[in-house]
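Aim 2, interim progress: modelling of the S-adenosyl-L-homocysteine-bound target.
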Amino acid sequence: MTDLTLHPNRDYSVLRRHPWIFSGAVARVDGAPAPGDPVRVLASDGAVLGVGAYSPTSQIRVRMWAFGAGAAVDAAFVDGRVARAVGARAVLLAEDATNAFRLVNAEADGLPGLIADRYGEWIVCQFTAAGTERWKAEIVAALQRYSPCRGVYERSDVDVREHEGLLPVTGVLAGEPPPERIEIVENGCRYLVDVREGHKTGFYLDQRDNRQLVKRYSNGCDVLNAFSYTGGFGIAAVAAGAASVTHVDLSAPSLELAKTNTGLNTCHVEESRFIQGNVFEVLRKFRDEGRSFDLVVLDPPKFAESKNSLMKAARGYKDINLLGIKLLRPGGVLATFSCSGLMTPELFHKVVADAAVDAGRDMQVVTRLQQAEDHPEGLCFPEGLYLKGLLCRAW
Ligand code: SAH
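Predicted structure of the complex, ligand included:
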């Protein structure tokens, strides 16, 4: 195995089990490892720190797979990592009311650059780093072994692959191709998932627990489901007895699927409305018309793509929360989220508080929210906590 030596004083984060080594920390590479090849990582004094996957074109030059001396990364190791990740979900996979889960969550599962989501009888994967790309065949075989399925489909059509010198790719990796839409059940709600064209691998599985929580506050409510995608929160609310739901999204195909998904669930809802438009504009219009809701869900896309755009993103989050809060009836509940990894829970809290101040409303935090438990965060990898939210009540 090739040795890669770090500059003096650059071993600290690796000793702290942080999995990313940036190019600036690398002093020397002995040999010419191919993209994704395992490299043995050494401190400047020659101490062995572990083994990582080499990525010659990425700023993140190495992603650590195993820490400490004596680690070997080979096919058996990769197989073991997949087994470990799937095994850790045994409690979830045994559930009857849900059949869509994340099986592998990248760094947190010791497989940096691999996402594997299970939708009913299919597994959908995303390979975002050279290291997991290198072991694709072994990973796919291991997924089939430990989580038997009808087929494995790849959705590696993501820009980040560029940094790794990889082209976007989609298609069947094993078994049968998935149907146009896979029907899943999540805590008793049914949703059709388009794993070929849908966002991420098809569905926002990370919001599962939060959709479930929102049900508790939905009975009899008029619900605004802003950034609805294929219906997610709104359909959960309807299943829990909401009086009405208004879905708002920019994407016509997403709303079309939201409509179909509504029909799939036996609804006690008087009205489901589907509004295609920009949430910022639609909510402003609602405000001007004096509309109000008992429950407002704000689940926008990632506003902050880089550190440079963080302040602009914070303004976006504040604007949207201000509009959302203004639409709440007294005692109403706001479920508000940010999936920007760069937005810390503290900053997000401040942004929502600033919005409440501007709206002139007293508000309380009922509970703090985050990504579901099948999307764990590495304890030494805070970047792994990307989804955060607040369930607030406004007086
Ligand atoms: N809450 C959803 C996921 C939301 S993803 C669920 O539980 O499944 C974010 C959604 O916001 C996407 O569907 C995207 O089309 C939509 N979107 C992005 N920007 C928007 C905007 N300015 N106005 C309305 N919708 C927007």
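Residues 204, 207, 227, 229-230, 232-233, 248-251, 254, 278-280, 299-301 surround S-adenosyl-L-homocysteine (CB under 6 Å). The radius of gyration is 22 Å.
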